[in-house]
Amino acid sequence: PVLTRLRGHLSTSNTRKHHLYYTMADNVVEADRTTLSSFIMMQTKDPDLALLMTSMEIACKGIARAVRKAGIAGLFGMAGTKNATGDSVKKLDLLSNLLVINALKKSRVCAVLVSEEEPEPILMPESDAGRFCVAFDPLDGSSNIDCNVSTGTIFSIFEKTSPGPPKASDILRSGKDMVAAGYCMYGSATELVVTFRRGVERFILDPSLGEFIHIGSTMKIPKKGKKIYSCNEGNFTKWDKEIQEAVKNFKQDTDTSNNNNEKKKKKKKKKPYSLRYVGSMVSDVHRTMLYGGIFMYPADKKSKNGKLRILYEGFPMALLVEEAGGLATTGYFRGRIQRILDLTPVGIHERCPVILGCHRDVEPVLKRYENRIVSAERKSKL
Question: What's the predicted TM-score (pTM) here?
């Protein structure tokens, strides 16, 4: 009846247009699309990995529901505790942590679980232990949850290779050993972005079906994408000179970054970059992967090892960005420039600096560090 009255006020052409929109909306439910579980089986033919991802999918659906009902259910605000890395814990952090842990435990394909909210790794009994070790941040960006900003769940997956009962060393490995990684973002839509080391795939939760639906081709960072830099510029005075200079160059309308000879330096006119910083790593990295640009959370005078955790923030995002054709580096860290995936943590909550994005924007930052190393080597020879 509402549609009938509405159409009575529309011209014939507008009626056809609106009818098309309604038909398209109906077809979203009826369309024959590939679900997450089907996609994994087709791509990997690994039933254990499919079961693991199905369990993660269940947890993410529960978190998405909790996030949407947080205000109604009284889940806004602090829980009054701190997590293993010293961050204040929100009520939704605790709930999200339980949802992921319980789902992965019941899958019976996991051996070791590492959560941002747990001080020690969770080791499965040998009788129930499976093949995989999973590290996760159950609700990244939760400090923004009360103001309705996008949040997400980040995870990395390793395969246990050592014999015997599960132990922490099964997951304290190089990022190159990951078999899969991803994040689920809770925003205007609930979107799961995942890699099985065969490119980066996107899945959207269809609430009418209760399934994550594959939405198309492999995700790639644009080579000449939008000129966006993303960082917490409030820390500017604490950064090293190279990061400060890189940020200044992003903001200027002239480019002097590619010529180190002061006498021959030529200033080229360019459009200044735009600053976009949400403060939720999932949101900032997701935008960087779709639009291009650079995301940076470097080390500073206060946090000399950086702020982001290697196992469940640095590693998974680095793998996704590299699989999408970008670069992921620590910058100058522990005496040298390092690729994030080359790190091997010695503790489950160890941190590292993170600089990632498209080649166009990350390479000039690395060039500044390379120039520092060359300059230091010249001075040492004098």
Answer: 0.87
